[in-house]
Fold this protein.
Amino acid sequence: MTFKLKSMPYAISVLAATGALASMSPAMAQEAPAQAQPIQRVVVTGSLISRADTETPTPVQVLTAADIQKSGKTSVAELLVDLAANGAGTLGTGFSGAFANGASGISLRGLTVGATLVLIDGHRMAPYPLSDDSQRSFVDVSSIPFDAIDSIEVLKSGASSLYGSDAIAGVINIKLKKNLTGTRLSAEYGDTEHGGGKTRRGSFSTGIGDLDADGYNAFITTEWRMQDPIMVADRDSYGWANRDWTGRGGNNLTLGLPTSLNNFLTAASTPYLFNTAGAGGASNAANFQFLDPSCNYTLYRAGGCTVRDTVTYIQPPTRNVNVMIGMTKKLTEDWEIAFKGSMFKRDSKNNRGVPYTYSPESFAGNTTLVNGVLTGGVNAIPSTLFAPGATVGRGVTNNLGGAASLYGYIPGAAPERTTDNSSTSTRFSVDLTGSAYGWDVNASAGATRVKTKAEYSGYINRVALYNAINAGVWDVRGGNAQELVDQVAPYFRNTLESTLNYADLVGSRELMQLGAGPLAVAAGVHWHERKQNAPPSSLTANGLVASTSAFTIGDETNTAAFAELRATPIKDLEVTLAGRYDHYDTYGNSFTPSAGFIWRPTQQIGVRGNFARGFRAPNPAEVGNAGSFFTFNAIDDPIRCAQGGGTETTIPAGTVPTSCGINPPYVQTTSSDLSPEKSKSYTFGVIIEPVRGLNMSLDYYNIKINNLIVTRAGNDPSFVPDWVRGAPVPVQIATGNGDETVLGTPAVGPILYAASPYINAGSTKTHGIEADVRYRWRLPNELGAITANLSAAHTFGYETEVAGVSYQLAGTQGPSSVGGATGNPKNRAQFTIGYNRGPFDATATVNYTSGFSTIDPALGATDCASTALDVGGRTYFRRLVQPDYYCNVSSFTTTNLNLQYKLSDNLTLRAAILNLFDKEPPYDVATYGNANAQTSYNASLHQAGAIGRFYSLGLNYTF
């Protein structure tokens, strides 16, 4: 058959008529092997039985080592985040406030990282010891090196019937290299156009032995990668990284700038004292005593003593060192044994911004959670005021006529809540494969561990600080001895560990002829033991400093038996049945069946479908000895700010301004009687191959999860927080005369926390379509070949129901209490076009994410008048009307270009430009999933825009 170029647009138009191009995602269609090639049987993720083709009843996307290399990316996390099937709840390294700081996770279908099972070579891996949102277990994909990967298979269907818990939304199976011969060296250097983010990567791989000729193969592969940080200061000339919103209809949130939002009292570039009882309040220069000549009242009020954030990361610094060894030995003609050992180490550093400030009037204390017992107000300081004439640390005296508050940044302290994170993943596995008595047998065992060492800084021991000030040994202006600084702002460490050991035994064979083909069966057993030991740090447990990371101490043991049947009852119809029985010592038993089919009435058309039940067992973070402290939105204190924060010029009398628009802390507590989440899912699709080289597929998916395990805050509309308050202490209170305030003692103290337990509540249902178009065209006269792939996903609906109330979240910011308010776009797509001729190869990739509303209906919002505050907890438009422009997040499209040229048989030159057209990220005022309030973009979906145009150049040498 002669294939003409015009057939491509024609075929796409036919697919578009079915709605495919409006909503696509990668499928599995691949070119059939040439007749001259021997038929090879492979086991595809989602099945235990080998097959001659890769078309299965469930959609599977395959990324080969060549695809990975041509992406131009430098890490697995960067690669997988662009999957069209990746959605709400995805976790990236740009979210510095994430509980799982430093790690990256994938959220297929937008059902969170906890519903996507990540396998290594088809087996489970120990999850990251810091759970996402302190709850969801996941495998950190940022620690897996490029050069160790042979392929990545993405199963986009529920698969608990074969793989057990967590495979509700799908499975990502990362297949590492099995054998290697020869030696390969590679080096790469990259840099951003706008500063920061230099990346260096090098790798070395070598292997000996031919498995067929020598009976063995042994190899080692190593990789080193270092990425410099990108600071907020590197991008603060852009609106999405700038605190001054006055030109955009909002407030000026520049640090150190006195405004009505902070009662014209805020920490500035130099410390100062303020007379809390002085006439005229902040409007009277006589009430201020500046402690450094670089700032005075006139400069301060004019914005001359502001602070530029030069410490916060848009992209944190990272360093990876990875080593993997493997050996395969043929035992007999039918049996072989393979061993792999790996050590993947990732170092990263992050923080939440400039150092902490002094406490002007009092300190409400810290909250501790020890063995389920909550205690608030630990190490509280009722008054931090300084009497007239009193010493304020070393060399400073209160020369004002009344009790004074101290404002300023604490000198010598590291940036706020800094975490220096070193995570080492180790994995040892052995696989024995062979044939006996007509059965293909695979026996495997493995030991995996993730050990994270966290070094904390930028936390303040307030008791030590004010003891040192009152004793006259601490200079509030700076220049303190390091020993004293270490007492006030201690450096402390913690070790967190997660282990998972497993054993699997699987056998498969053809039993008999049934109908038009063989009846094949596979059966197996599985065991794993998982332990998570992530205790709270010592200084957090005793309340000397604020909470660092979530803590989890617990374990689980799972035993399971499973089976799969595959038959061809009539010609061209394949049917599969599978089921799995699991026993967990944490809650009991689960049985999960599945059924699927694929029917090919002609060589050009196929129809497939799948139904599956799934489950997710409660994990140690939900039922063990665990807890965390979190915030996600902003509220007005129902007592201390009962009338709201007022207007730009007037604050209601009796209002405590510092209690308006606050991010209230919640304490996450566990529940021992949780039931597992259970799901039902089905897919139905068509596969079309009208001509050679053109493959198209369109699949509808529908997943419903019942018995959702969620925290009550932000998820249960009937939840009314039981606020625990500190003791009433003196604070600035509005007089009702404009924005004037005076020092007084309110009737109740400030909010310390509210407990938010895990509950089984309601359901989530998501449904949509995913499609894939793959085209390969060989140009005449040996002019080369063109390949084009288009994958995309469209979400019809994402409905959450809790306590009988249902919310449609597709195309909104919701669920904002999950994963940093990543947003829930309806459409994602990826288009790749490549050209190859001889030694030259060029690939361009376009990634598209549709826009979405900043409203989160699950929070009860019906309009976007204040989504920045209500959803994201940001005060960009506090006391103002939020402009309509910020009701929606705009769509985002980036283009990546990768070029390769083979200079010789051994040497290949590579060059790439990521974000070729230097697209900036769109504004997302309702997310808190980024660096801090200075950044108003979505780091999970639009991080490429914040990085900007990125160039890289590399060389590969093989011999």
Notes: The two ends are 41 Å apart (CA to CA). The CA atoms of residues 921 and 942 lie 5 Å apart. Residues 7-17 form the longest helix (11 residues). Residues 1-37 have pLDDT under 50 and may be disordered.
